[in-house]
Amino acid sequence: MIKHSAKYFLTFLFLCNLICLFGQDQIDLLIEKMTVEQKVGQMTQINLGFLSSSVDQHDGKVKKIDKEKLKNAIENHHVGSILNTAGTAYTIEKWHRILTDIQDIALATPLEIPVLYGIDAIHGVTYTKGSTLFPHNIGLAATRNPAIANQIAVATAKESRASGLRWNFDPVLDVGRNPLWPRFCETFGEDPFLVSTLGTELIKGYEQDGLSENTAVASCMKHFIGYSDPKSGKDRTEAYISDITLWQKHIPSFKAAIDAGASTIMINSSMINDVPVHASYRLLTELLRNKLGFKGMIVTDWEDIIRLHERHKIAKTPREAVRIAIEAGIDMSMVPNSFSFCEHLIDLVKSGDLSEDRIDASVRRILVLKRDLGLFENAYPEKDAVQNFGLQEYQSLALNSARESMVLLKNSGQVLPLPKNKKYLLLGPGANCLSALNGCWSYSWQGDKEDVYPKTSRTILDVFQERFSENQVLCDVKSDYSNADNFNINFSDEEISNVDYVILFLGENAYAESPGNIDDLTLDHNQIELAKKAIALDKKIVLVLIQGRPRIISDFSAKMDGIVNAFLPGSMGAQAIVDVLFGDFNPSGTLPFTYPANSGDLLTYDHKNLSAMVRTAPNKKTYGGYHPAFKFGDGLSYSDFSISDFKLNSDTISGDEKLQISFQLKNNSNVDGTKNIDVFIKDHFATLAPDVMNLKAITKVFLKGGAQKEVFITLDKNDLFFFNAKGEKLLEDGFFSVLIEDQNQSFYFKN
Ligand code: BGC
Predict the structure, then answer these.
(1) Residue 456 falls within a domain, yes or no?
(2) pLDDT at 489 over 90
């Protein structure tokens, strides 16, 4: 009996040991054994292209990985993390070979610390051949469907982990406040509530119930903070953001993601109010660590430490740049194309300019992440995770999410859905281009390499040709987006005379980051001219916009019978667009941003009362300053919905009492459909000028044709506060209104 108990006790101890194999104590013991060089190596992240036949600057050309360079990085520089591809997407097998080579070298070093590999899997697994690509965030935001965002993240995590990649530089939590910004498509649009709601779903989907599961990846919130509102609209340029705006618009999504358990965070390459964020102790340590309570690992963005010297010019030398960034709070440097960071940081610690305790804190966070990801138990690609790659269900998810993302902006004379027995002329560069449908981060950084898309990918023309007979479809659009032929109508009058409908596919070709900078939000000249030529044909005409940001179409939009904004819908985008055009799917998407009518008028929906006010004549004011082409939340349906009996449970709430909103939603048509509902709060008076309204809740309701349903939404005092410049939440007594479309009810809040 006693013998047995002892045996059980020993087994128990052994299990405890296993569980704690890399507990906090073990990590501390490991750190104690490490030299300064080894610690600094852990804080260093190198680009795979740098370890290849020549330096890869994201140019998409495939390079051969050089084992000697790899060994030098890991053995001599003790590099703890690698990122990116040395070219375009790899097969799973190639990823496994690369990662196995890397870990073989790492585990043969004296400390046997595995390498942490980081990758951008932005709307699906960007860099693995055959992965499923989903709509970009801007389209996901139009679905108003947090559940689908979560499912996409789970699928992405599984395909990523199957590739052997355990750390994903996603999601983008920047709030899309400036539609010129070339990364607008990576955002969930202009509203902080929407970004927080969908962004946290991505985090939960990536990280699931724990990073050691072979279906999960570590997420990386990015880019902290204020990246998305550059004054010039150009990528990586300066922003001027007051503390109030920072708290009210930019911080909430990061705070929500931190609370949802995000493991890592990447920093904004740019500067706010003349201070580069990578150099800001105030933003990285006081705000992010101390105030927002982030415990995870902070990584820089690409080359952003040396750029404190080279671009921002706040550090006189590269060594000084390293000191400033580490003092500000950086844990890991995405160097990534040299070892200069290692050299300078080693020197800074050895000379006493930076304390070893400071770098120990960073190394600890990095090792904890490696432990949580299960890398100490098994650093190699997990063979049994491969079964989660390429599942049929991901295709359905890609199709459903793309369908739900489509926004029907205009439908004059019910031109849509189109009848299926007519003749269609397809015009515009988007009609035959995979890159345009998928956008950035699609099998390459820029997403513009048509030949790397899977053979199963379909352009819009492909889908038309599959679904209609040859004589129904007239199209001469070349897959090369900017081919001059794509901006002309290359058919005879006789051919055109047989056409019933013209469908114009305009917008943008793929671009990522700075290469997507533009000087004018207006759609480019060639496309506007093409639209005018199409209008001159005098047929029913439908415009489909395939684009990452709202390019201005005011020159010709009035002449369009129908307009669908398809965003960047991903690998099943062509099918989803055609489904919507012909009524095989009833559109329900709603705009996650304000679609401007004029380039000088980029007011967001949540502007101040002052901006909304226009003085038309002496002593005459109207609230008409918000004049977009389409408003935030706009989106039509083939059903006809109406809202009635809009009620609040009380005209006063106090303290913790709940405010219950109810209304009847009716589908007056005989077409089944889904209605996205945005719920806004208007604060009538506040000690800091309130916005005209703010989004506080979203819901989606499916109704069969002719059906009616009572819808309930509950809000409380947490939906009524605002932030001051210190980040304090102010909740003031006073009148508020709840607004849903044209309905509105007021109530009084009392603390
Ligand atoms: C981008 C990041 C990305 C990183 C790594 C940078 O240029 O700004 O969003 O995660 O590259 O590829």
Answers:
(1) yes
(2) yes
